């Protein structure tokens, strides 16, 4: 049986995490009412104080899990300070959770440019107009900034702001969890071994 055919009860047989993750995300795309790629992103600040918020997963492969943001935002600064992060997906309708932890890399300029170019024009303007996570005096101030950048980029391509790019969490561990009766859930954690392969361990729920 291939990993993509693994059902909720036999996922613990998977030999590696990426095809299993792809299958679960695919299931979530069919079952969730919106944002199946929405994921909680955890960081820590310079004092070790945790922080968490949602982002959208925009790509993944064996190299890691990618999302995009403003590098001057709270999360951007926290990640640039520690170069570590964690993610937690919870697909309610499937009763499944996936947790990912690891060091963080910055995606290449070419990769960020390619993704930025796929975004709607309004979102590209928004990346310029929003000083994400900093105090905003009024809604009007944001709308004024949007109008200014819209006028500035009335014609031609809208370049990607230097402070807007992607981070890639390079997983050290990926844990899959599925609800089972009486809270006797299935948990399997894949951990990177010294040779870059994966060790698989079942955990008590
Ligand atoms: C479902 C959902 C998806 C989101 N996706 C992103 C995203 O991909 N990138 C982003 O910068 N913010 C995203 N946000 C907004 C963040 O949760 C957060 O409010 C913002 O990035 C500021 O976070 P920070 O102050 O911790 O940096 C999303 C919010 C929700 C609810």
From TrEMBL:
Its EC number is 1.4.3.5. It catalyses: pyridoxamine 5'-phosphate + O2 + H2O = pyridoxal 5'-phosphate + H2O2 + NH4(+); pyridoxine 5'-phosphate + O2 = pyridoxal 5'-phosphate + H2O2. GO terms for biological process: pyridoxine biosynthetic process. It is an enzyme of class 1 (oxidoreductase). Residues 25-150 form the Pyridoxamine 5'-phosphate oxidase N-terminal domain. It comes from the Bacteria. GO terms for molecular function: FMN binding; pyridoxamine phosphate oxidase activity. Belongs to the pyridoxamine 5'-phosphate oxidase family. This is Pyridoxine/pyridoxamine 5'-phosphate oxidase. It comes from Rhizobium loti (Mesorhizobium loti). The gene is pdxH.
């Amino acid at each position: 049986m291939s990993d993509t055919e693994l059902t909720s009860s036999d996922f613990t047989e998977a030999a590696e995490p990426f095809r299993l993750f792809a299958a679960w995300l695919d299931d979530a795309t069919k079952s969730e009412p919106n944002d199946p790629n929405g994921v909680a992103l955890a960081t820590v600040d310079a004092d070790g104080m945790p922080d968490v918020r949602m982002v959208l997963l925009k790509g993944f492969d064996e190299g890691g899990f990618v999302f995009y943001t403003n590098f001057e935002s709270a999360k951007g600064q926290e990640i640039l300070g520690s170069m570590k992060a964690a993610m937690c997906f919870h697909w309610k309708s499937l009763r499944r959770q996936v947790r990912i932890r690891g060091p963080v890399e910055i995606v290449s300029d070419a990769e960020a440019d390619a993704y930025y170019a796929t975004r709607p024009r309004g979102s590209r303007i928004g990346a310029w107009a929003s000083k994400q996570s900093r105090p905003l005096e009024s809604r009007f101030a944001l709308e004024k900034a949007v109008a200014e950048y819209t006028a500035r980029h009335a014609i031609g391509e809208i370049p990607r702001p230097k402070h807007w790019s992607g981070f890639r969490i390079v997983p050290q561990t990926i844990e899959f969890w599925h609800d089972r009766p009486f809270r006797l859930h299935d948990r399997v954690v894949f951990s990177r071994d010294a040779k870059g392969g994966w060790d698989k361990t079942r955990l008590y729920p």
